[in-house]
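Task card 7
Instruction: Convert sequence to structure tokens.
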Amino acid sequence: MTDTAVLEIALRTMIITAKLATPILAVSLAIGVGVSLIQTVTQVQEFTLTFVPKIAGVGIVVLITGRWMLQELVVFTHQMFSLVPQLVGSGG
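Output:
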């Protein structure tokens, strides 16, 4: 296995991780900012108020995008397994 192959695998892994985490992180961030604005306006500073909306939002996002996420992860896994013979053959 060459250093180029390792870097390629690492790059692919980071890209798929970013693709899969982006919807969840974006919704969590948006809900957090929205609840923080509401807390600031109403002057209610309760830390647990952000927890339930974030959990509900993340759950909805996973329900909506879960199939796409699973498909992307399966495609990535197939690509990685298809690279194994090339990596084993070139490592000798």
